[in-house]
Amino acid sequence: MAGDSKKLQPIIIKRVRKGGHGKHGGAWKIAYADFVTAMMAFFLLMWLLGSTTEGDKKGIADFFNAPLKVSLVGGTGSGDSSSVVRGGGADLTRSTGQVKDGDVQARRRLLNLKALQAEQKRAELARLEALKQKVEQALAASPKLEAMKSQIRLDMTRDGLRIQITDEQNRPMFDSGSAVVKPYMRELLHEIGHVLSDVPNHITLEGHTDAQPFSGGERGYSNWELSSDRANASRREIVAGGLPDDRMLLVQGMASSKLFVPEDPASPLNRRISIIVMNREAEERLLKLPGQGDADLAAAAEAALANPSPPPLSGR
After folding, report:
1. CATH of the domain at 152
2. Crossing angle for the helix pair 183-196 and 101-141, nearest 10 degrees?
3. For residue 93, how many other CB atoms are within 10 A of its CB?
4. Cβ(244)–Cβ(290) under 8 Å?
5. 9: in domain
6. 192-231 tens-digit pLDDT
7. Angle formed by the axes of helices 223-240 and 183-196, to 10°?
8. In total, how many domains does the chain have?
9. Residues 96 and 168 sit within 8 Å (Cβ to Cβ)
């Protein structure tokens, strides 16, 4: 009977419940995390839309409409900035939203180029003014050249420093109708060549005559040939004075087309040699060919200055 009483004894099972959050459990945390993530994504979307330019928006739209075409062809629709990541802006200081990086860099390059050009012009003008003083000092240092001071005129022009040597009634540079340089004129040209050898600028040289025509000059030798021959004779003397021959950019005869004294076409002052120490702007303007752009001009100038061609003559 004792064994039967043990078999009938009830079995009690105790379940231990740990502390929890009631019926809802922890599902609210997941919902809250999803809400915060969605708000963060919405904020980023609004920020990107506000800081993206119209060109970049169009590029994004074009990409989703025809991704293969945009990837292969590109163009302004796919973002035309110069950033490594195309279509992005990098100017975070703007209060009205970002701008294309290409626009910012282009404006900066333009401003830097203009400032550099202005600084180059100032430095070049100062160098030419110093050259002008040096020529004046060289003339004053020589008693022989000092006697020719009244025949020498120095002035600054749009093209650079101009040195003009004119005739005088009792002291001509050449005999009438001749291109043979007078001895005192040769000494002056040698001194000018020596002074000009210290500056890197290129030189143009012009020969001028008065308006007195040659007899039968229309059919044969005329003031055009005479002015060209005198310009070339002066060039040879300047080179003999120390100026490198490749620094001559242009030698031409002008005859009586540009009179120094227009009201007196026969004045000896009209018979002159003009030496122009050219500034950079004048060199580029002289070397620029019709139809050339700025990039072509720069390349042409570099090639021409590196390998100068024989100076052309006009008035043949």
Report:
1. 3.30.1330.60
2. 140
3. 5
4. no
5. no
6. 898 888 888 899 999 999 988 876 555 678 899 999 999 9
7. 60
8. 1
9. no
